[in-house]
Automatic annotation (TrEMBL):
Cross-referenced InterPro entries: HmuY
Domain of life: Bacteria
Keyword Signal in annotation: yes
This protein's name: HmuY protein
Stretch forming the signal peptide: 1-21
Family matches, as Pfam families: HmuY (PF14064)
Coiled-coil boundaries: none
Length: 196
């Protein structure tokens, strides 16, 4: 009987000693931060096309009147959910000569909000995210421009516009359908300014 008791005790100690639930390893509970590419978001106008970073969706209905959208598109203009454009905590900074992948943290200050006739992201060729070629009539993203967006609920994303044409052709022509955004972004869901 003693041997059976000792054998049972030995098995119990072995199983308890191998239990993974008592691990003292630190747990990484940081939300995943990944690059998301979105293709062909329409910006035809006359209304706005609203977009939310957290789930990569176009926002419609009553949510367009709330802080549940982050950026909105109408032709070449990009709006944020703050200032005159929405009730959110949104804003933007246009960074030039910046590598999208090397940008590891959002600036802590300097965000502009949409004002009457003056979006936080400036419009016009060479002023914000694009150049316009008057000879070919082509809109091209400015190399090295990264938009840092404060979302409707005050979180951060970095955005790079890839194309303004449907299907994102490498060399768009006047026959390509315009007013369709393809862009990549990184969204930080935990509210920190870190993009890694």
């Amino acid at each position: 009987m003693k041997k059976l008791y000792l054998l049972a005790l030995l098995f119990t100690l072995l199983f308890v000693g191998c239990d993974d639930s008592s691990s003292t390893e630190p747990v990484d509970d940081t939300p995943d931060v990944k690059v998301v590419e979105v293709k062909d978001v329409p910006a035809l106008g006359p209304g706005l096309t609203y977009f939310r970073f957290s789930d990569s969706t176009i926002v419609t209905g009553a949510d367009t009147l709330s802080d549940k959208w982050d950026i909105a598109f109408r032709r070449t203009a990009i709006y944020t959910n703050g200032g005159v454009s929405g009730p959110g905590k949104g804003g933007a900074i246009v960074l030039k000569n910046t590598d999208f992948y090397d940008l590891k943290e959002a600036p802590s200050e300097g965000y502009q909000v949409d004002a009457e006739n003056a979006p936080a992201i400036p419009t016009g060729s060479g002023n914000g995210w694009y150049n316009y070629n008057p000879e070919t009539h082509i809109i091209s993203p400015i190399p090295g421009v990264v938009l840092v967006i404060k979302s409707g609920d005050g979180k951060y994303a970095k955005v790079q516009i890839i194309s303004y044409y449907k299907g994102a052709p490498e060399a768009p022509t006047s026959s390509d359908e315009s007013k369709y955004y393809t862009f990549r972004y990184v969204y930080q869901p935990d509210g920190s300014t870190k993009f890694e």
